Amino acid sequence: MIIYGSKGSHLRTAPLAGTSCPACNTPEAMKASVYARYAHVYWIPLFPFSKAAMAQCDHCQQAWEEKSLPTQLQPVVRELKKSTRFPLWTWAGVAVFAVIMASGAIAGRFHERDSKGWLTAPHAGDIYTIHSPGDSTKYSLLKVLSAKGNTVEVVANEYEIDDRSPLSELNSPEKYSKESESLTVLDLQIMHNKGQLTDVDRPGK
Question: What's the predicted TM-score (pTM) here?
Answer without folding.
Answer: 0.50
